[in-house]
Amino acid sequence: MSMDETHGGSMVSAILSSIVLLLLLGRTADAQRSLEFFDLLPEDPKLYDKMRPPKKDGQATIVYFHVTVMGLDSIDENSMTYAADIFFAQTWKDNRLRLPENMTSEYRLLEVDWLKNMWRPDSFFKNAKSVTFQTMTIPNHYLWLYKDKTILYMVKLTLKLSCAMNFLIYPHDTQECKLQMESLSHTTDEMIFQWDPDVPLVVDENIELPQLQLVKNYTADCTQVYSTGNFTCLEVVFVLKRRLGYYLFHTYVPTCLIVIMSWVSFWIKPEAAPARVTLGVTSLLTLSTQHAKSQASLPPVSYLKAVDAFMSVCTVFVFMALMEYCLVNIVLGDSDTPPKPASPPQPPSSSGTDAAKLDKIFDIATKENTILLSGRSQKSTTGPPPGPTPAQRARMRALNIDRVSRVFFPFLFAVLNVTYWIMFAEYI
């Protein structure tokens, strides 16, 4: 081999090595260059319309939802609202986008601000009063792009939601509070919401509420037809059952004790009017305060609640105990006229003293002879004792009314309690 051929081969090898090195440096530069939004758009950006859903073959775009509930609190019966902390995820596929050339992993994290220039679902929370976006320590949301051009957008939110409550059987009630997500402008011809087929809903098992218990939760469809079209909607339903322990120890037991306290007047003598009237009025006022306290946290509804029926009947019992003393006082007061004074015996005259003494001696002798002959006691011969006075008879009638009340009131109140708790036993 000549020198020229050897020199020529060396030149070719150097040129090839340079080309390979340039290619490697180019790829390294591409790998180090940050991804731009225009790298995701089609080659002709005019073909991408961010206001038009990415419909494939004319079919409506399907958006999958996933909700993770981390907390429920601030349930307010008066305003009929509750608060929820959630992770809200939306997943959809946009085939109009391009994948980055250097994408090697299953997904790539994108800048969330790019959503302003991309099509995204126009979902909103239908029954939300307010929505708080978490920003500590960084904005709590992210955007993923998968290899199959699926986009995942997840955000952490704190929601204040309305909950239509029915207090007809309060405090034995069970409420259903909802979290509804609906499309704002796209009808079902363009977009459809569906729950994630794998994990649609996750609720933290450690959720504890002071007066309510989360007994059940499930997902449902709430799609409705409006005058402008049929708009897709999904909802999460929380079934909340009220705990009875608080109301049992702060409403029912104190109310029953107040009613029982009003019966003490049946054992106080009828003549003690200040004691009996004070006890009845105090019991009635205390029960009215207890009733007002039980309604403090509830809205002023126009229908009768279960606790209202119980408290009203207890109020009637205390009022009737006070009216019972009115009846006793009336019966006792009908014969309060003072008795006529007996006329004093006239002193015997001096002329008839001897004759009167002889008459008494003969009467005593006659009675003793009669006792000896008949063998009967002296009391039986004196005749029946005089009957009770009108005042004594009136007092006996008043005492009889009290005796009947001591049995009648507790019996009727026991029947009321048994009936009430049997009616609501299935809700306990």
TrEMBL record:
Major place of residence: membrane
Superkingdom of source: Eukaryota
Location within or outside the cell: Cell membrane; Membrane
Gene Ontology MF terms: chloride channel activity; extracellular ligand-gated monoatomic ion channel activity; ligand-gated monoatomic anion channel activity; transmembrane signaling receptor activity
Pfam families on file: Neur_chan_LBD, Neur_chan_memb
Region forming the signal peptide: 1-31
Record carries keyword Transferase: no
Region annotated Disordered, chain positions: 373-393
Record PROSITE patterns: NEUROTR_ION_CHANNEL (PS00236)
Keywords: Cell membrane, Ion channel, Ion transport, Membrane, Receptor, Signal, Transmembrane, Transmembrane helix, Transport
InterPro entries, per the entry: GABAA/Glycine_rcpt, Neur_chan_lig-bd, Neur_chan_lig-bd_sf, Neur_channel, Neuro-gated_channel_TM_sf, Neuro_actylchol_rec, Neurotrans-gated_channel_TM, Neurotransmitter_ion_chnl_CS
Membrane-spanning ranges: 247-268, 309-332, 404-423
Entry annotated with the keyword Transmembrane: yes
GO cellular component, one term: plasma membrane
Topology of this chain in the membrane: Multi-pass membrane protein
Neurotransmitter-gated ion-channel transmembrane domain: residues covered: 251-333
Domain Neurotransmitter-gated ion-channel ligand-binding residue range list: 48-243
Protein family: Belongs to the ligand-gated ion channel (TC 1.A.9) family.
The protein's name in its UniProt record: Glycine receptor subunit alpha-3 isoform X1
Source organism (scientific name): Bombus vosnesenskii
